[in-house]
Amino acid sequence: MSKxxxxxxxxxxxxxxxxxxxxxxxxxxADGAITDDTRIRAALPTVQYLRQYGARVVLLSHFGRPKGGxxxxxxxxxxARDLERRLGSPVVFLDDPTTEASVTAVRRLPRxxxxxxxxxxxxxxxxxxDPALAARFAALGDxxxxxxxxxxxxxxxxxxxxxxxxxxxxxxxxxxxxxxFLGDAVNAPVRPFVAILGGAKISGKIDLIEALLPKVDHILxxxxxxxxxxxAMGLEVGNSLVEEDRVPMARRLLEESGSQLVxxxxxxxxxxxxxxxxxxxxxxxxxxxxxxxxxxDPSSVTAFADIxxxxxxxxxxxxxxxxxxxxxxxxxxxxARALAGATAAGAITIVGGGDSAAAVTAAGLETQVxxxxxxxxxxxxxxxGKPLPGVAALDDAT
Length: 398
Fold this sequence. Notes:
With 398 residues, this protein is an alpha/beta fold. It is built from 14 helices and 17 strands.
């Protein structure tokens, strides 16, 4: 069932309305400075649209994982200052959005004014989806907009609970875009449809592999999870990371998938994960004892790029190696370049958040793919076919 969107509301009815917008402003910071503003930039179109039509905009977001209550380290105050600069207007900061004083402050906002509430996880009951806390958040608004795709797989008071209490409850522009790209890719892909899966553990991707196998033409497997498949094939993997308890499952997937599941033809190996340690590129059946695979090798990149180059729809989730440590970033960067090439040739290319998004950004290619998701866990669960509570609670499109 498709969901009602912000674009479906009559914009002339937004004037003077209090609109609570759940964003995902959980951005990486170092020494009080934002080191990656992707999520903030992605949130701005919805905020600017509401301001343009005279809404009083109240922003909710979590930040980090504070334990046991408020922690200055996880305050959203630095984000408020950043938003003021981007919006070119003051942002009222609500230290405690659950108070009547905050309700009053929101009512006093000028048309087009913006308020940012303190970290939702500072308030007991947020992650437990406490109805009383959801009601306090709901008291701030007349309309609810969820534009936090990155938290849509969590049923929290500020994402799921509030959506039942403030009506209309609709998706923002970013949420709408995420659902459209991911939904079309899974439900109506232009073929050939190729999925690229990487990362450390097969256990985190089993549901995704099983959900995608009936739908895709190929699944390319990289990262350390490839080693578990190598072990299932009876190959020597040395000291590579292997999930021993998943080897039988990997063997079953190989038997069931036939030529759909494509593994690396070789590995970039070293005796230890150290950028200065000697490395070798070897065929996958020649990993010696005492060595470990930390990336796919150049021949695998070429083979993967050939398949990606023929695709019309591509989804990528998970790096091909330990891309934070050169020279084990070559496989991931090679796949990123192949994705950019496929996009230029007309393919729909979707990068599923998390490490893959970081890798595409590091390669300077984020503008050369069709869509980079802002939600790693949410995109995974959506592609697996699981309902996202933050989306399910929104109004159905009529």
